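$ ./design --mode recover --in tokens.txt
reading tokens...
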């Protein structure tokens, strides 16, 4: 390779090398908001001049990436604002990554089941192949991961993992990031507030192939607001910005999210996480006493298997829950046929669940 060729390869970011080629020359849609301007009479976006709501500015299009929201999340995550992108939930971030980096009909993603279903569904909706690998018997990543992953563009690791609630140590994730320098390793930390010590967010500074996904839907109690985050190096964020919709974050959502990420909001979240974890422990103990095999729970839910001989069977448990008006989650995946996932809940509802579980079938 000539010196010039080498320099030009090095000068190209990983994001540019992995992105769908047509994005490299694509000029993102220039919304009126993006173009901006100065003055008192704003008639550049076909908006209404009338604000019929109490929310200031609701008649105007919002910022694509509201700066205050981005800065708040950057501060919360310990990153720079250039390493943060906000989206309609982590689900949209998953989709954006696939649309930015995978060529339909040619590229693939890899994930490790049983895991969150949207990685595969999102890929399939874009005609992107899914290399559906499995966690091992101890719910850890397989030994020969790089060869199993093959030429997947994106590798999704959910940590803590939904629906098992189990975790992979940050050192093991870092080893994967190192072993796949030309693949984007996407670590979905939707539940990380329940086990913050396991986050790999600090590694974003160090590795250009790491993407971390976050959400306000879980610990921050804002599932209805649809607000998630992608954390990655600037080149990846810049590339995804070519694909994102012009106005992905509704104004009321940005307001709610900014409040949730205030010092008081974060403190309230942490108090609620403590309450939920305490109730989760009570629930796990009651499930064990009721004959279930319960996995260690690092998120805000516990996966209970009703597969032990002469103990509560899954069908019986499902019937009991239904009769008591309890809606928990069962699965079609054959590996989870005997399992039910229970989300942690309030003191009162946990008391009611415990009372149910203590009754003999
Ligand atoms: C692991 C995981 N990632 C992402 C999501 C989606 O999060 P959001 O509500 O931010 O789209 C969920 C939702 O259940 C999840 O379990």
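writing sequence...
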């Amino acid at each position: 390779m000539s010196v010039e060729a080498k320099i030009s390869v090095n000068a190209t970011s990983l994001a540019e090398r992995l992105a769908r080629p047509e994005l490299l020359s694509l000029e993102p849609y220039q919304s009126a908001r993006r173009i901006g301007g100065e003055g008192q009479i704003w008639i550049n976006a076909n908006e209404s001049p009338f604000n019929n709501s109490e929310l200031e500015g609701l008649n105007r299009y919002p910022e694509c990436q509201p700066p205050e929201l981005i800065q708040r999340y950057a501060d919360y995550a310990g990153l720079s604002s250039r390493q943060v992108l906000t989206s309609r939930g982590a689900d949209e971030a998953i989709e954006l990554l696939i649309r930015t980096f995978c060529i339909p009909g040619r590229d693939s993603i890899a994930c490790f089941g049983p895991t969150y279903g949207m990685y595969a569904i999102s890929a399939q909706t874009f005609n992107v192949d899914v290399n559906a690998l499995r966690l091992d018997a101890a719910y850890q990543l397989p030994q020969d991961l790089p060869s199993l992953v093959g030429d997947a563009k994106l590798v999704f690791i959910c940590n803590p993992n939904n629906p098992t609630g189990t975790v992979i140590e940050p050192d093991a994730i870092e080893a994967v990031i190192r072993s796949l320098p030309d693949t984007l390793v996407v670590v979905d930390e939707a539940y990380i507030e329940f086990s913050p010590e396991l986050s790999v967010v600090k590694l974003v500074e160090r590795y250009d192939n790491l993407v971390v996904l976050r959400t306000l839907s879980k610990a921050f109690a804002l599932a209805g607001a649809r607000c998630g985050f992608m954390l990655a190096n600037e080149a990846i964020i810049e590339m995804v910005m070519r694909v994102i919709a012009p106005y992905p974050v509704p104004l009321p959502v940005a307001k709610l999210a900014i409040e949730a990420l205030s010092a008081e909001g974060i403190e309230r979240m942490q108090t609620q996480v403590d309450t939920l974890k305490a109730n989760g422990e009570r629930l796990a103990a009651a499930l064990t006493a009721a004959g279930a095999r319960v996995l260690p729970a690092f998120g805000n839910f516990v996966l209970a298997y009703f597969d032990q001989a002469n103990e509560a069977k899954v069908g019986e448990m499902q019937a009991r829950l239904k009769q008591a008006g309890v809606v928990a989650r069962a699965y079609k995946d054959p590996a989870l046929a005997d399992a039910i996932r229970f989300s942690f809940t309030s003191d009162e509802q946990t008391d009611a669940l415990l009372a149910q579980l203590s009754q003999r079938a």
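exit 0
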